[in-house]
Amino acid sequence: MYLAESLLLGFIQGLTEWLPISSSGHLAVVETIFGVEEPLLFNVALHTATLIVLIVYFRRDLVQLALAAISLDFSSKQGKLIPSLVAGTIPTAIVGLILYEHYTTLFNFELLGFSFSASGMLVLASKIREGYNPVSTKTALLIGLAQALSIAPGFSRSGLTISIALLAGVERDEAFRFSFLLSIPAVLGALTITLMKSAFDSTILPHILLGVVSAALVGYLSLATLRKLLMRGFFHWLGIYTIALGLTLLFVF
Fold it and tell me: Which class for 200: exposed (0-12), middle (13-18), buried (19 or more C-beta within 10 A)?
């Protein structure tokens, strides 16, 4: 693994982790085409970098949620989110534990092509409905199921969860916020399991540092850009890109 590859993979992770175009799918495509073998510990480091970006970006929401949970306040705006976040996390946890051992078998161009295309069509369809509803427990379960589906590479986590929220009539900013707050326990759980299976290798530390810096810087810009696109009504256009990529993988490669 070369330093240039570390920089490229970090850039791709940061750019695609939050945009509705699937980071795991893009990394799988790049690694397959260019023959790059990504060490498991390096993968954990990249996802840790983008998770830190998420925690920094939503730090005020997380503090308010923590205070509401400590005081058992489930009637305030933040407190009402807690049961919904728990409900949305359950499907992801169940599916994640079942499919974790089979995760690597999902990396082939046929499945990736289908996943990219299906994910893109849902993102494109999200324009159909505009709403101003809060996230109910029922909607949270549907969003959680969408997040569980995104365990498969090519299915964008943010694309599926935000699209389902929008189609359920949730207001744009609330859909954005709930989607990413819901992702934090899912990413933490996945990282914990993966880290337990990772072996430490000091020789890749320079690669890890370069990849982490790249992923963090690009990831923060990517997250801020996604919110702007969503609030200005351009979110659904990103579905066209993933549909095109999926069809290319299905019919060209």
Answer: exposed
Q: How many CA atoms lie within 13 A of 144 on its CB side?
A: 23
Query: What is the extent of the structural domain holding 203?
Result: 3-251
pTM of the model: 0.92
Residue 215 tokens, joined: 């992923």
Cα-to-chain-centroid distance, residue 144: 12
Determine contact, residues 151/95, Cβ cutoff 8 Å.
Answer: yes
Neighbours of 144 (CB within 10 A): 26
Render pLDDT for 163-208 as a digit per residue (tens, 0 to 9).
Answer: 999 999 999 999 999 999 999 998 888 888 777 777 667 777 888 8
Q: List the structure tokens of 120.
A: 């893109």
How far apart (Å, rounded) are the C-alpha atoms in residues 155 and 203? 33
Residue 119 Cα to chain centre, angstroms: 12
Distance from C-alpha of 25 to C-alpha of 44, rounded to nearest angstrom: 16
Q: Are 212 and 204 in contact (CB under 8 A)?
A: no
Cα R_g (the chain), whole angstroms? 18
> How many domains, in total, are found in the chain?
1
